[in-house]
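To close the chapter, one final illustration. This time we ask the reader to focus less on the individual chains and more on the assembly as a whole: which components sit near each other, and how the overall shape emerges from the parts.
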Amino acid sequence: MRELIDPFKRLLDEHCPPVMVREIERGADWRPAWSAIAESGFLDALVPEEMSGFGLSLTDVAPLIEAVGASAMPLPVADTMIARALLARAGQTVPDGPVVLSTGSFPTLFAVVADHFLTGDPGNLQLIPMTEAASAIPGTLDRMLACPNTGLRGIAATLRSQLIAGAVSRVLDLSIAYANDRQQFGKPIGRQQAVQQQLAVLAELAVSARICAAIGMRAGLAPSLRAAATAKIGTGIAAERVASIAHAIHGAIGISEEFDLQLLTRRLYAWRLADGSEGYWAGQLGKLVLDDRPVSALSFALAE
Amino acid sequence: MKAKAQIVFDTLELSTLPAEDESLRAPLRALIAETVVGLAPDRRARSWQGFDAAFSRKLGANGYLGLTIPPRYGGGGRSPFARFVVVEELLAAGAPVAAHWIADRQSAPLILRFGTEAQRETFLPAICNGEALFCIGMSEPGSGSDLASVRTRAEREGEGWRVNGQKIWTTNALHSDYMIALVRTSGTPADRSAGLSQFIIDLNARGVTIRPIADLTGDQHFAEVFFDDVLLGSDALVGEEGQGWAQVNAELAFERSGPERIYSSIVLLDTWLAHLGAVGRNDEATAGLAGSLLARFMALREFSIAVTARLVAGETPLVEAALIKDLGTSFEQDVPALIGDDLAGHPDEALSADLYRTLLYTTHVAPSFSLRGGTREILRGIIARGLGIR
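The assembled structure is written out below.
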């Protein structure tokens, strides 16, 4: 996989560096960046080989999605990878241009910079052109699509989980670097035990998010409720707490526009809310638990 | 510094328990059921504090102890995955495993790795049979988290050693045959980790006095142990003189990484789930709590299997073990707090005395979950160092 990840990261760095992320968020033309990514072929990483894709599994592709999360990419690159795989497998026409997954009434992320949205369920996909009628939410790249169909919520939630894992690992790196660099009271703030304890918790949450996301990825393009819920609950909790801790460590510079931390933490908050928060998924999983009446937590875990 | 953080990220991958180890579950469950069938849930909630030497011998006779020890020493010759499955089944059932717990988890791997051939041949077969019970002598009255400050001392006496000093909070000392103690063999406490060594001390030796200490539940699982001119042979030293600190740290990776760091409150969780079924409660708030706890449990279990895979690969995952222990014990402590709020949040619902006693027991011992085997604050210091914080 190394031979895929490194070129992919270079592609993201080259065509969507932080300065471009900010410009696209302010309304600049995103098509050139998108074209470069589309031409690379990576968008078909999950499409079967006989349909001229890479034929990779979601677990294989997880590092690529992680890289998208870590890059603060303002375009639905990962959504489009999933959408193209689902459409190709269903024998449906795969459109050019970015596609977002939409699974409910809650705002759909990056719908302003997409040509289509995909909804329905894996057996009955609905690819709908993004009309101007679907209202953009001012100050965001999101739209209210009021999509009644929740069939793709599981795969969308596992996708958000992997994006969160990527952003969180980058936030950890930024926080470690800052704690070693920033001097107060005549020494790096990382020497303060209180800061070390915060960083340790951040690291725990980052590793935990990575494990939870991997549980989701392992379940493939049609994940079980168990897998999707475990992934989104763990990463949703991590997203919120990691963002808070990272901002606490960075102080005022962290909430400034010019510092890259905010690009990542804003996405962490957004991905936590997208496609069902940890509260939603806990309710869904809990209903399954209470209906199943397992003899033990272990037997429930082993039943997957 | 980035490279170091990367180490933890790159090595912890999901892993799958091999089918040949999964197949251990069914026969083991049958054997466990014979012992736990009559135990009330608050007894089962004691889990690795529950002492039953006959049960441990039965596990040994059936090949469930010393699973990772080579067959030539009486062990199972299997991987840490096999041990994970067996330990998980024992803990999930709330089986009384205290008698063999420390010998099987820490002492046997330590003796295998650092012991002499004679020590291996003497102790490993007995541990694998559930017949040699060990405790660990680390804490002292003045040495808790600051373990390197231990003052108990072993001095050369002819070919052997003379030990004086005191250990405290030693789990199961009263019932154990041997203690593996960390003591000072040279220098002073100011020399910190230099000059420490590990010894196997026969607790029946002259000069050893053991006094049990009752805990807040009334149980007497730990004790203080006094050494008054205790004479040891030259064969009591484990590993190299002066290398005790490095050996103890390797041992602590075993102590911190196992599934026991997510299972301490599992009997309460399972008893609560059974209660919900019995009273027919399935509203949204209840489902949310059940789902949240089960999701955390399942994620931690995968995390623990991922750390076990590092043991299988022959590594000593110190930082990973600290990560899983802190996350796992937080879950274990949240379980009684959240279930207590849930049950008392339904004051008009019928509650069995068994569930109430299980809730109280787990609530009372929960603070110890993040003390034993290294406190939360110490673990977070280890993690911060692992991140390359300078």
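Chain B touches chain A through 52 residues (CB under 8 Å). The CA atoms of residues 13 and 306 of chain B lie 6 Å apart. With these observations in hand, you are ready for the problems at the end of the chapter.
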